[in-house]
Amino acid sequence: MSSKLLRGTFILSLGTLISKVLGLFYVIPFYDIVGAKGTALYQYSYVPYTIFISIATAGVPLAVSKFISKYNALEEYAVGRRLFKSGLLIMMMSGIVAFLVLYLSAPMIAKMSLAGEVDSGVSVNDVTAVTRAVSFALIVVPFMSMIRGFFQGHQSMGPSAVSQVIEQIARIAFLLVGAFIVLKVMKGSLVSAVSIATFAAFIGAIGGLAVLIWYWYKRKPHLDELLQYDKGTVQISLKDMYKEILIYAAPFVFVGIANPLFQLIDQFTFEMAMKSIGMEEIATDAFSILNFQSHKLVIIPVSLATAFSLTLVPSVTASFVENNVKNLNHQLNQTFQVLLFLTLPAVLGLSLLAEPFYTVFYEHVPLGTEVLRTYAPVAILFALFSVTAAILQGINEQKFTILSLLVGLLIKLSLNIPLIKLMETQGAIVATALGYLTAILINLYVIRKFAGYPFRFVWRRSLLIIIFSIAMILAASISYWLLTLFLSPESKFQAIIIIGVCALVGAVIYAYLGFKSNLVYFLFGDKANRVKEKLRLRI
């Protein structure tokens, strides 16, 4: 891999990481401003928006960058430029259409979300207003994703990374300042404050687009210079261009919308199910705890583990194409082991420390602790689905991703209401876990059948990782018990101390066992040695 590509990948990964970190920690001041009702309102609009934006843009930057880099390598620079010009127009039109559909369907989405007017402080009109406020971002984001893909196709990752960060900063700043001014200074309504918060997605998109336009004018002379070296031997129709783009982008769309679709099922059924068992008074708060507050924390270990695992997927593709069975099995072994090694201790730790974590990010709420403790282990399934879907793409069986997702969603849809009636909020979590588990089992079966992959070695190594995780969680549990003798997880400051000490104890035990058993060397190779040297570990 060239140093330029390595540098570009690092820059883009760093930009994505910064955006995710900002997207996590803004919830602390936001929750303080708008409370549980406000975050529920916010989530009612944001889940449909996420699905719309994923359908409109998921995979577009990657698909466009792959297409352009392919023809650039052939010195057919004009092909990529032609795609870019027509693509901008198409993405602008698709953005406007998506905006109109979401804006006009907002009342229907609100009614489905609340099962009519629910006596919990949130009305259909409220959800309609905040959904329409967020829909404006759809006008800009697809257009912006096309420009990002164009730059990435020229191995220029800086514009995408910087625009991502600026987009997130602009969105969060407008969201927090706007909501604060409306509620605390102007003494306005909660609906107005949350509408400002959702409209912040449009402001963020404008900020990100401004950065990309600046980069375009700055780099246009160089990009125009490349056209002088165009061979002009390839003639490809726009129809064939977009066919190639869609084939590559489609799997990313389905993986991208998987989690929002599961959340949407909760959004359309949760209030109704809770109302049927006489729990309408807490339905909105419980929905906020499940779909916004706990979900934000559960996604943390998923993002880290999936990012590490997916870096191995290109080599899976190469091994499969070359029919190198030995190498393919090795790469799959590593992918699954890295995923489990990183995710399992993280989710167990989050489950153990659910009470202090929830207190630090939001406030001390017994239901929040209970939901987060149950929800945290489901993160393993989120990560596994994402990685198995990526592997299916690597072995050219991505059509089964659609099948597994549809079956998983059917399981979730069938069981959600009965389980909520039986177990209240916990029932929605169990239904999600069963839906994801079914989808993953289908993916694993397809991987075994078409890649001829035996899971025996992974099962044995997984047992070792589970033993290490149990040892880690026992040590952290003892630390937690001792600390709670004189510290309270109900206090934000004391909760931070509890998290810090328990996390440190758990990490030390887990790292020691990993290095002592040589497991980290098998999984990460030279990277493990570099970490050991930097930390000056003597294991």
From TrEMBL:
It comes from the Bacteria. The chain crosses the membrane at residues 47-68, 88-110, 130-151, 172-190, 196-217, 245-265, 298-321, 333-354, 374-395, 402-420, 426-446, 458-483, 495-513. One of its GO terms (cellular component) is plasma membrane. The keyword Membrane applies. Keywords: Cell membrane, Membrane, Transmembrane, Transmembrane helix. InterPro entries: PG_synth_SpoVB (IPR024923), Poly_Biosynth_Transport (IPR050833), Polysacc_synth (IPR002797). This is Lipid II flippase MurJ. It comes from Pseudoneobacillus rhizosphaerae.
